[in-house]
């Protein structure tokens, strides 16, 4: 409304206009308060969410560190396992070589026994130093060396 139109209005019309404007101001003030309350609630919620996020980030960092430590320990265990597997393979190879050597010695011993059974020596074999020692120490048990002691 223009100023000219306002001047032409009666006093009662002006009062009604003021009342209407007052109501609108009151309604707008209420809406502003309501929006301010909503903004404050949203800010509180956002702050609470930030706090939760910070706690979760801290927990996530702790879990990452724990996982890194476990990964490191797992890698060390894998390296130890690899070293032990290598040592075990080495021992297997060594055992295989020794088993082969024992088999060859057993075969040679069998050949010697067979040869001695077919052609016994004309005179008895001289005593070995170990046999001599065991004859001087009759109570000494040396069964794995062919000793004569008590068992």
Tell me what you see in this structure.
By secondary structure, the chain is mostly helical. The protein has a domain at 9-85. Helices cover 81% and strands 0% of the residues. The chain has helices spanning 3-8, 11-118, 129-136. The chain is rod-shaped and about 160 Å long. The N and C termini lie far apart (133 Å). The relative contact order is 0.03.
Keywords summarizing the entry:
151 residues; mainly alpha; 3 helices
Distance between the termini: 133 Å
What radius of gyration results from the CA coordinates?
53 Å
Name the average pLDDT: 87
Helix content: over 70%
Tell me the β content.
under 5%
- Number of helical segments? 3
What structural category characterises the helix and strand content?
mainly alpha
Largest sheet: none
Write the layout of secondary structure elements.
Blueprint: H1 3-8, H2 11-118, H3 129-136
